[in-house]
Amino acid sequence: SNILIDNCNFTENAAQGQGGAIYTSNQKFSISSCNFTHNFVVTTDPSFSTSPSQGGAVWVSNGGEEGVVEQSFFARNTARSGWGGAIYGTGASLLDISDVIFDGNHATSSYTNGALGGAIMVTDGVAITLSDTTFTKNFARPNYTTNPLTYSGTGGALYAQSVRVDISSCYFEG
Fold this sequence. Notes:
By secondary structure, the chain is mainly beta. The model has no long low-confidence stretch (mean pLDDT 86). The protein starts with a strand and ends with a strand. The strands form 6 sheets. A 6-stranded parallel beta sheet has the order 1-5-10-15-20-25, with no helix packed on it. Strands 2-6-11-16-21-26 form a 6-stranded parallel beta sheet, with no helix packed on it. It has a 5-stranded parallel beta sheet with strand order 3-7-12-17-22, with no helix packed on it. The protein is globular, with a radius of gyration of 14 Å. 0% of the residues lie in helices and 52% in strands.
């Protein structure tokens, strides 16, 4: 099966666990000319959850299939107590991201989970290609609203673990 998403807006969607706007598993997909704004994913207990939330806007596990995200905009998406403020990818897939803007996305930590990848987190064999893409004001940081204070964050724009990463003609700004 193929999923084709073109010229769509995803605004203020929410999920518990994975994929605030989109969750896809073991399918080839293409997202083109879309806007993802203010989407949100959270765990059952944001302070003490044993598993993190993943993919504030998009969660993908392609099982070897190709995923394409192009000419799209991701702004102010959140993975609270989680990983991948805008996109989370796992599962030995190919993720090709080109001509995309990531602005103000964030992952925040909890007492039990660190924040990883303010805009994107990829893990578990994913091969990711980033080209002609802009990252501005994305962050992974502690959740300062919880008590006790929480773990730190890593990878304000991108967190990559056990993956191949190719980056060309991209812009990163704090």
